[in-house]
Give the backbone structure.
Amino acid sequence: MRALLSESAIVAPGAYDAVSAKIIESLDFPAIYLTGYGASASKLGLPDYGFMTQTEMAAHVSGISKVVNIPLLADADTGYGSIVNIVRTVHEFEDAQASAIHIEDQENKRCGHMQGKQVIERQEFITKISAALKARRDPEFMIFARTDARSVKGLDEAMARGYESLKVGADGLFFDALESAEELERVAKEFTGTCLVANMVEFGRTPLLSVDELHRMGYSLIIYPVTGLFSATHAMTLALQHLKDAGENSSLLSQVTTFEQFAELMGLGDWKNLEAEYQKNKIKN
């Protein structure tokens, strides 16, 4: 991911499971964002409210990284505890083959676009980021400092946290839940030359700007955490409501992926070729 970001801005849609990750890769996006919001929903059936544990998320990252070949930015929430937990989190996500993570400064973990957030003190957050950076073993593994302070203490405090994160070596900054295009632009100007994350959440607190607009401002990594999740939820709800109401699914055929298309997405052809090759060898022997 570090090499990609040195070349151009990256658009990384959010994956919530292996199927959504494979769809993102099949559409030639350069990277995937593994959303904690989507992971909590798909793995646990629970809101993004601090339920997902470190080991559950690391296992989720590992499962997805095994079936795609593009960089994966993973949501590491608050780092899951104290300094020793932060160190373990970095190691677990490195081992799971994430290319990058972000660690945030929330105290009572919840989705950044929900109300009622609280953040830890600035120095405690910077200590966590410093510990994470020192813990990494792979120099190519990127660590982004994410602050939710805008909603709690104001934009000036959020930017102060950004500056101090850069001082200890953070690879990039993620200011979540900015509330206007003017705030997005102000952050981009203040941190010119820094790898900045823009978070485009449908129905969230941040206005939805285009990729071109964000790129012109100076954002390097533009994530869409729930576009796929919300789209899939809506499409499935409509299809199953029709099934319930009409008692048939034949009229849905033009609106769904075919059996063959899904098999191709899952790589069935590669597995069949492998099976056939071994069958040839078996016959020869």
